Amino acid sequence: MEIVAHGIDLVDCPRIEQMIQRHGERFIKRVFTDTEQAYAGANKNEVEKLAGRFAAKEAILKLVGTGWRGKIAWTDIEIINNAAGQPEVTLGGEVKKIARKLGIKHISVSITHTANFAIASAVALATKEQHQ
After folding, report:
1. Calpha distance 87→113 (Å, rounded)
2. Buried b / exposed e along 79-106 (16+ C-beta atoms within 10 A)
3. Do the beta carbons of residue 62 and residue 27 sit within 8 Å?
């Protein structure tokens, strides 16, 4: 496996909080899967957790080279933590199709946040044969 793409994104946590206040459940359901919502809701710093996942989704859209457009849905990308607490990426829908075309076999993501900012970095891995 080799690294074939990288994406990074920085999110202002108060901006995400404003979006939630302004658009409520409509925003949350449009952007986050039920599992992501449950994870964030179980934490005292819910907005930071949501902002981190938002940043991760943006970073992944950058690494596949599309940005958010066309048939892509925010929920095509799901970020859930494994038993060790490490975030893992699951793709679906249009984003999964694009990643497959690019030969991407795995996306590794790292997220960190404070009360003010969330940042995520995503790295796409592919087998050498498929990427050439």
Report:
1. 13
2. beeeeeeebebebeebbeebbeebbbee
3. no
- The order of strands in the sheet holding 104-113 is 2-12, 117-126, 104-113, 87-91, 77-81
Total structural domains in the chain?
1
Instruction: In whole angstroms, give the CA distance from residue 18 to residue 99.
Output: 32
pLDDT at 68: 72
d(CA 41, CA 31): 14
Residue 115: alpha-carbon gap to chain centroid: 19
Residue range 36-53, pLDDT digits in tens: 999 999 989 999 999 999
What is the helix (H) or strand (E) element at residue 46, kind and residue range? helix 46-63
For residue 20, give its domain range.
Answer: 2-131
Instruction: Supply the CATH number for residue 84's domain.
Output: 3.90.470.20
In tens, the pLDDT along 16-38 reads 999 999 999 999 999 999 999 99
**Residue that is written with structure tokens 């080799």 in the block:** 2
Across 85-127, the runs of DSSP E, i.e. the strands, are 87-91, 104-113, 117-126
